[in-house]
Amino acid sequence: MTNVLGKDEYFSGTVTYGKVKDMQSFVLLSYSTFFDRFASHYQDVWRLHANANYDWKINDLVSVYASTSYFYYDTIVSHKENINGELGVYLNLAEKIKINTSVSYLGKRKSVRGEDNGTDFIIDYNDVLDLDPQLHANISIDYKYTKSISAYLRVKNIFDSKRYMWEGYQEIGRNAWFGLSYSF
User: Fold this and answer.
1) pTM to 2 decimals?
2) What is the pLDDT of the chain when averaged over all its residues?
């Protein structure tokens, strides 16, 4: 469903429900006190997915956007969140400088453990670790010097959060990159 709410203001949403065959997830296998590894696990799940998007170009200078997704599974799916979203403000300064600030959210996930029996692995749904949700502030700046020369700066996870993305693996924290572009 897509709806025009006003001049340069849009809402879209979808709801889907169905069986996903061989949905991939990752299960942590422990081999010893010092050695663990993740293995691909494929399972059939019934999934409900609801998504909503909102875009509003307030004027030539400011735009606002928001997006969220909700997932419901009929069973535990390792490392898959139930909700995620992003809220952002986009500034366009004289068509030369474009700034995008956003806050992104990744909901709680469950990390499932398993045991390798030599030919296959057995999943232990009683050995589940909850991974904390993640909230990140991000900014990107684009500068267009001429039609052929531009530069950009991206900074993700501004507040240097170091929560676990995967069991035993923290996110990298604040990260930034800079780039120059020349087209001829």
Assistant:
1) 0.85
2) 92
